Amino acid sequence: MESIGDLGEFGLIRRVTGRPMGPDVLLGPGDDAAVIAAPDGRVVATTDVLVEGRHFRLDWSSPYDIGRKAAAQNLADVVAMGARPTALLVGFGAPRTTSVEWARRLTDGIVDEADLVGASIAGGDTVGSPTVTIAVTALGDLGGAPPLTRSGARPGDVVAVRGRLGWAASGLHLLENGLDGPAELIAAHRRPRPVYTAAEEARSLGVTSMMDVSDGLLQDLGHIAELSGVAIDITAALVPLPPSLAESSVSRDETPTIPSEGKTSPSESGVGGVPVPDPLHLALTGGEDHAFAATFPGGTSFPAGWTIVGHVAEGAGVTVDGSVPSLRGWDHFRS
Length: 335
Ligand SMILES: Nc1ncnc2c1ncn2[C@@H]1O[C@H](COP(=O)(O)OP(=O)(O)OP(=O)(O)O)[C@@H](O)[C@H]1O
Ligand SMILES: Cc1ncc(C[n+]2csc(CCOP(=O)(O)O)c2C)c(N)n1
Ligand SMILES: [Mg+2]
Ligand SMILES: [Mg+2]
Ligand SMILES: [Mg+2]
Known about the structure:
Pathway: Cofactor biosynthesis; thiamine diphosphate biosynthesis; thiamine diphosphate from thiamine phosphate: step 1/1. Catalyzes the ATP-dependent phosphorylation of thiamine-monophosphate (TMP) to form thiamine-pyrophosphate (TPP), the active form of vitamin B1. By secondary structure, the chain is an alpha+beta fold. The protein folds into 2 domains: about 5-140, CATH 3.30.1330.10; about 160-320, Phosphoribosyl-aminoimidazole Synthetase, Chain A, domain 2. About 25% of the residues lie in helices and about 25% in strands. The chain has helices at about 5, 10-15, 65-80, 100-115, 165-175, 185-190, 200-205, 215-230, 280-285; strands spanning about 25, 35, 45-50, 85-95, 120-130, 135-140, 160, 180, 210, 230-235, 250, 270, 275, 290-295, 305-315, 315-320. It has a 6-stranded mixed β-sheet, sandwiched between helices. A hairpin with a 5-residue loop joins strand 12 and strand 13. Helix 3 runs parallel beside helix 4 and helix 5 packs across helix 6. The longest helix has 18 residues, at about 65-80. The protein starts with a helix and ends in a 15-residue tail after the last strand. The relative contact order is 0.17. Bound molecules: adenosine-5'-triphosphate (ATP), thiamin phosphate and magnesium ion (3 copies). Thiamin phosphate binds near residues 48, 54, 172, 215 and 288. Adenosine-5'-triphosphate binds next to helix 3.
């Protein structure tokens, strides 16, 4: 197996660059920096880091999946601002024994996800690292429109979501506990599928604030509530749920790898003694599906794909059916 140590830093860079560029990239990989077109003079820029063992496991996800996920979570942030993604910068760290093929498949995943929105990898950085670490920066173009911020929600607005909630968290639960369950849930953990048309749709519906859900609906809506100076109440009965995990069974050849004790709430005992997490709890607190959550003036009528889940009122904080929830979602230093 040819390793990236055999090839050397610059050999590896040559192997993972040279991909076709979209028209937004005026100068791509190879120079001291990339040059990206910014037709309206503003650039939306965002970065998210993925760390082996924390965001993905090499035995749970393929390099292609990890690439798709690293790109998707950054592209979703650009779209959440109401912008069109134009370019990605890819920071890649890995041990020298990593195979070149692994690095190429990771790049394929990033490129294929970026292709969904017409963005290209315009540059990056390549370093040695004891564990695989991927830091993607995404740039986007607002096309002359105002950004969709977290600060525009107003009392009387409704809260609506576009995309899945709790699917990736359900897949993670299956993987962590060595359970067989719906394949689509494990796929959702490996590759989020943000609905990239959401910003365009939201603008046409008169959106007042918008974000993507990375850490959990309640946690993330907390940012809109805080920055908009409003209260948000979620109506539990309206929240779209992931498929049930009640039928999941312990797979023959696997035993639980990471105890999930303390991370699940209201549950009954499932097969093999692993508690079955409540789908509503997963939908309210599970991150990584990168659904879009947004607020709209009351009375907005929504097309298929958007689901009203709550409303905005005067006050502060996020409640569910009027009560303060005990768990809200992912916190890197608490989860
Ligand atoms: N080390 C840092 N230095 C400066 N700003 C930071 C740093 N870390 C995070 N931020 C900023 O703080 C905010 C964090 O918000 P939040 O965690 O909701 O971002 P996100 O990227 O949408 O979510 P996630 O990271 O869960 O995908 C972002 O505006 C981000 O740019
Ligand atoms: C191996 C493994 N263990 C746990 C998780 C769960 N997880 C990690 S980060 C995160 C929040 C979003 O990340 P960020 O805030 O950095 O965007 C979540 C829900 C996972 N994906 N893989
Ligand atoms: Mg972030
Ligand atoms: Mg975000
Ligand atoms: Mg986060």
